[in-house]
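User: These chains co-purify. Model them together.
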Amino acid sequence: MKIMPCPLNGPRNIEEFVCAGEVIPEPDPDATSDDDWSAYLFILENHAGVVREWWYHVPTSFWFIAERDTVTDEIVDTYSPDEIFGREPRPDEPPATTGSGP
Amino acid sequence: MSGGTNRLPEPAGSRIDRGRAIRFGFEGQEYEGFAGDTIASALAANGVWLLSRSFKYHRPRGSMTMAGEDGSALVQVGDEPNVFADTRPIEPGMSVTAQNYFGSLEWDVASLIERFKWLFPVGFYYKAFYRPRGIWNYWEKLIRQTAGLGRVAPATPRRYFDKAYLFCDVAVVGAGPAGMAAALEAAKSGAEVLLVERDPQVGGSMSYVRSAPNGNHDEQALDDFQEQLSTFENLRMMADATCTGLFTDNLLSLVRGNRLYKLRAKSVVVCAGALGQPATFRSNDLPGIVMGTAAQRLINHYGVKPGRRAVMLTSDDDGYGVALDLDDSGVEVAAILDTRRGAATGPMASHAAERGIRVLVGTTVHEATPRPDKLHLSAVLTEQATDAKGMRERIDCDLLCISVGSTPNASLLCQSGAKLQMTDETGSFAVRAIPPGVFAAGSVNGFTEIDAAVADGRRAGGESAQHAGFDVLEIPRAPTPGRVESQYWLGPGHPHGLDFVDFDEDLTVGDIKRGIAEGFEDVELVKRYTAAGMGPSQGRHSALATSRLVAQVTGRRLADVGATTMRPPAYPEKFGHLAGRGFNPVRHTPLQHRHLEAGAQVMVAGLWVRPAFYGPRHRRSESINDEVRAVRQRVGLIDVSTLGGFEIRGPDAGEFLNRIYTLSYDRLRVGRVRYAMMIDDTGVVVDDGVAARLGRNHYYVTASTSGAEQLYPSLLWRQAQWRLDVDISDVTPAYCGLNIAGPASRAVLQTLESDIGFSREDFPYMTVRTGQLVGIHVRILRIGFVGELGYEIHAPSSNAEALWDALSDAGRPFGLRFFGLEAQRVLRLEKGHIIVGQDTDGLTSPLEAGMEWALGRRKRYYVGKRTLDILARKTLTRSLVGYQLSDTEGRIPEEGHLVVRGREIVGRVTSSAWSPTLGRPIGMAYVAPEQAKPGETVQIKVQDGRLLHARVVPLPFYDALNARQEL
Amino acid sequence: MHGLCRFRSTTLSTRARSFSACPTQGPELDRILPTAFTRRGFVCRRLVAAGARFGELAEAAVPLDFGDPASELELARKLGLADLSALPRIGFKGPGTMDWLSGKGVVIDGAKPNWSWRQEGGALAVSRSYSEALILSDLGASGNLCLELDAASEEAQAAKAYSLPRYDGLFWFALSGVESSKCLAKLCGVDLRSRSFSDGAVAQTFVASLSAIVVRADLGSTLSFHLLGDSASAGYFWDCTIDAMDEFGGGPVGLSSLQALGAEVE
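Assistant: Joint model of the three components:
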């Protein structure tokens, strides 16, 4: 069984985690054509190489991001989502990015 | 002498205790062995070599290795099938039977199959059963009867199997000379070392292989090792444990007794040794033909004389050591057949010559001759190794020992990613490309001499400790590869066959060659076509020969042929090991015992166990109807603790809910409750519940029982990106939920001590109140899922039972009845309320489900809105409606029954029940959008294919003005 | 030393109903049973069936022993499982959690998730992340830390430390004794051996496939773990653990033996 280095809990058996797919920036819903929006929802890149993925540690309900090589299955890096979603938007601002996650 | 007639005098037999005789049964006959004997060694001591019949031709077989490596030694012990007779210790009263025969082991009727073997060409599985059509039905019966090895007894008592984790810095697999040296070297660095050995004792080849021309195996060296091993506190030994797999990031599976261990190590040293290979000649599978090491194990471990007159077939100097061991044990060595061209010059060979043992160089075995009863070897016919037409000689013998080269026992290494490659030097495999963190040492790494293996083990021990993060001052040097003195001797095969390559599957040289000739030129294809290597021994004795034959026939270089992929398990695991002690969490509400005491029949909903209804099973529908009537006419109480509960707190709590749910919550007044529906990015309804505003910055949100578990991660996932000033906490198990509903529910609550006013004015519909009820902190939500005046009381779980008792006592004078999930389903159906996941599916949008009313029209954003905007411009393909049946002819549709229009399927029934309130069957179904108007008739196809006519009616079925819930 | 439990000598409350499984008659009447309280532990029926003797602590019945305190202490040294669910505990979560707790005098390091700190008076502060903490009462429930923090919930919320009802949401068991880490290796994939998981360490992981919090909190010199998880699965978890303990000869113990172990000088 593979080991996932969790940024909060350290190295753990991968059965403690759920992978929720690639981190894909959500386009601005108001400035996106229907076709582009559908592509965002349903077309996945399936890139061969290092991808950024959402991972969830079930016992601590902790979301983080893992960079994983889809060819070798090597986990290159893991970090808290703070590192890419660090900016705190105003409450009245529409969300900048989300993804097609769980 | 007791313990069998073939027992050698002491000191032979390091593993047996001659003071403890053990009697056991084999094939109905009683035998005696000593404590420490295996089944096979004890039987050999009694002159019994025949252990089983082969899989296909039912040929007589015995153990070839005495080490649990070959499938020929599988026997049945009581109700336990497929036990390795050569590793399982005997126990008093043990009842052992042979496997895979019809009639008797000595006279197996099915062995006649061999005469018709032309009927079963290689690949016959793929050729024979197709024509004429239907012929498989005939063959299947026959094959099912003949196939398989041991017997599974359905009445076998349940045994306890379980699993456990183990942890160490360095795991060493195999406690032979290399493994012991590796473990010691790693332990010196301070690393925690686990040394795993399949045998009951450490030592490996050191415990049975002749170490010097004059002496036996080196007991002193082994004792020294054992003493050193015991000096390290950070070194643990685990004998009798078989490593069956090496998985990602150094997780090893170990089987020991009834337990499967999952060992996680920082680095792994594989010292699994090498596997002696058989040679191909006619009748090379007869009992009496064994590996040279098997004879040495019998002599040195068990004190068993392996035969009376022996021939040694060898391609290396090790064979001479075996011959000396035999000679020392009183076995007459008729001849040593050395396949090599020149005379051997090693010390063992010289010593054998000094003893006057006859050596025939450049000679191999042409065929083995069975006894008249065909059950044992009686002679061999020799052949010139390089000239098949040369002189032959018949030598009488009852024992033929083989030492013609070996292959690394590399299954674990290959599982880790290493590759096997054949080399011209050895004619055998060598291990290449071992990944970081995994190390190989000893004969699996090509160092077969004991001294070299020890040196290689020390090297690997140092490297593995260093990899595990320990300081190693100096890594011991690797031994210099010695001169390769021997080549693996495949053998010439035999023009008339019975020259077996795979003993498990009864495949001969000719079979393999035929497979290749039919175009399967890659080893992987040969394996699949011929089944070579697929039996219980997993190619340990056939993979090398198969690859060599492929090279020979296709004319490829050895290095280019490769080996088949090796997968776990390397050694057999039982289903019990895999299935044993699994963990399947269940969730019970704090009222579980009260439900059972009240006669509830429970059902499973997700991980939860919930009451379906109260009353005996045979009164199911009466009970459900009574419960429904109680709620409609008087008062009912249901446990809804399984609903998800979430605290949403912080300045942005309202904004967060606005984005998550389709309605608006930021302007909801404190103390109010609002329906909450969630859709996903693709516009599909995924959950619903209510949101209650408890304070300016505090909402309490409920979720459906089945949705709650997925909801929490998805809320946190959004927040991880939105980063609003809000906290989301799952408090599902902290709160119980009791829903008291029915016209008398207010009156019941008003009899109880509380600081909450329950009057219509104080506590209107769709509001929330917090306070005390019978001294318990509660949050009460006035909502109406079942369509009656009702209060959903949320309280700390530890108080649940006391609260339930108080409510049921107070309700008794009012005719309160407990109701379960089934009654609740009927009640909400009468009200036309959907259940997400039952009346919706993985594609249902709110537009199809008639939930447009729950979409916040003026909202700029909520999850899924963009997709709904697109869907709204498309034509609907189906709509959820309520229907009633005019004439059911006693039939009620079931959930999932189809709604059809002519030959077209337009929808399906999602909810269906007999309504005790209305006195007729009702339901909800998806229909074509143009049928969705009240008054339209749709057709429902029920179980027997009959069509029922249903009329679309407006929802709800009951109390259209919603007067009752707002009483 | 933790305060001794006060034994309650009143008869059963008339309002509280007994469990159908345990008849209350004759001399049994003055025994304290979980049903005497409106707050009841998640596995109290199992404890009653195993012959537990209860005392009153923090307005609930806590199992003190199972009839033979002397041999039970030895059991607790080897391998004992105790239900501490009746003892106070509270959680806080939110960006202000660590600062607010520190301001309240709680010893906790917000920069060190998955660790625990013993408080003066015996309570334990557990950091579950950079912004979530769990406070466990001392084994005698003599301190008032949890109650004080609970009473200040509104103040906490203003400081963005949102309180969490962990008393009801999490069961709390203690697994004590020299065999406890070996026993846990049958249930849990994290290395909890003394050498890798020192006193004070915290692991949030699967135990018997259930999300659980494991806190190493030795009692005196005896190896011991607190185990907390979803209260709805308390019975399941209790049964799994008892089953895993069988091969080591372990069994249920009461609070008294844990208190005695805790009083022993290291």
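Chain B touches chain C through 48 residues (CB under 8 Å).
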